[in-house]
Amino acid sequence: MNDSTALLKRQLFPVRLADYLPDAAEKACLLYAPLSHDFVLLDTDELEALADGLAECDSGTGASRPEHDRLLSWCLTHSSDALPKANYAMSPSQVRSLTILPNNICNFSCSYCYAAKGHGSDELDEETIRAALDWFVNPGRTTERDLYISFGGGGEPLLSWPRVRFALRHSRELALRGGFRLHYSYASNGSVIDNEIVSAIKEFAIKVNISFDILEDVQDRQRGSYRLVAKTLDTLLLNAIFPTVNSVITPLNVHRQCEMVEHVHARFPGLRRLSFDHVEGYPFSTVDGLRNFYDDYTENFYSARSAGVSCGIDVSSIKHHNVSLLKQRACAGGFDLCPDGSVSVCFLVSSPREALFDRFVYGSVHDGRVSYDESKFLDIVGRSTHSRPQCAHCFARWHCGGGCLYNTSSKSQEEIDAMCHFIRKFTLRALLEGVKN
Ligand code: SF4
Ligand code: SF4
Which residue has a Cα nearest atom 7 of ligand 1? Predict the structure, then answer.
């Protein structure tokens, strides 16, 4: 491809389709303007003429009249030299989301569990939860009025239901006093539900996420307890609560994503939102194995999305959702309260038994007091920001944000390159499918 400097400096990214889609014509290209969520399809000859036309515009030597040149005019109206709005906190005092990990206790033993090493018997006490909430829902800390509180693992949060209930009630009191709007969510393995929890979901308008691998044989091999989780989903649906189901896609179910949608349609007709995220940290024996898995995941994900459209089910994933967002950095910086009272930047790292714990933990809540290290927080968040040279020319950069520190910390350079190719291909498929916001 020709020199793209004049395009790139306007935040316009040329993409040769055949680099990602084997059936694409040799000369077919896409020119992407991520900051306006728009693109135009063209061929390499047009792209070359365009880059020359823009370079001439820049040097003031061009005879071309943009109003008569459709592509040049498109470029000029889609050019930008502004960065997207910052999506990250510069200090813990700016965070709008608090994640509470009430325990590291789990009644499941999932084959791909990210938290398995940290499982134990720790549980947050009310004093610690109270101190974290008093700090978080505090008009002296933030002028934002919408704050987000989620409960997740570590372990299974609803095994500590009395702690979750305490957090809901106490935060509501603080919000009423301080004039905040609170938005709640939880992520559960679906093994715990009762009438009190159902009532609380309605009373506090909690967004519910259930981790469930949908097909009975897959759930029972990867997570266990298909019947128990199916019963929880039935209970929620019976009470007009419509959770998002989060499924982990591994080599075992990567080719069965359409079947998963069909099973949901037939067995759980009220479910409308599925999130199919690929497994992280799976021990592929070769990098080619990882690449093939990414390709299979992408193909089958988009087939499942189409299958979902025909039965009114939205099939998404974190990476698919990212295409509708603009991110300067992959890591927005979290305030995640771990079961031992530590504060981690990411809920995926929550126990001193995990290798990344010391790198991710920047504060604590102890003896009724919140404390944190501002410079460590900034340092962690600052690491996930287009640090690879390829990021500068990468058309996915404003959706990817340079890769999440957790996901890149344990990967080899070859694995990171495979991941980047996958992110670009997956993003391209989303664009061609018409994701726009
Ligand atoms: S339910 Fe969650 S925390 Fe428990 S084993 Fe499975 S993935 Fe790990
Ligand atoms: S996909 Fe890779 S190269 Fe592109 S922005 Fe993300 S980390 Fe950087």
Answer: 113
Asked whether residue 113 falls in the same domain as residue 155, the answer is yes
Task: State which of 111, 112, 156 you would mutate to test the pocket of ligand 1, scoring each by most atoms of that ligand within 8 A of its C-beta.
Answer: 156
Q: Is 400 in the pocket of ligand 2 (CB under 6 A)?
A: yes
pLDDT (tens digit per residue) in 258-280: 999 999 999 999 999 999 999 99
Mark out the alpha helices in 145-286 (DSSP H runs). 161-178, 195-203, 216-222, 226-238, 257-267
151 half-sphere exposure, CB direction, 13 A CA radius: 30
Provide φ and ψ at 148, rounded to 5°: -120, 130
pTM of the model: 0.93
Q: Are 149 and 76 in a shared domain?
A: no
Q: Does any domain span residue 386?
A: no
What is the number of structural domains in the chain? 2
What residues contact 314, with CB distance under 8 A and at least 6 apart? Answer: 272, 273, 274, 308
398 lies in a domain?
no
**In a shared domain, residues 285 and 310:** yes
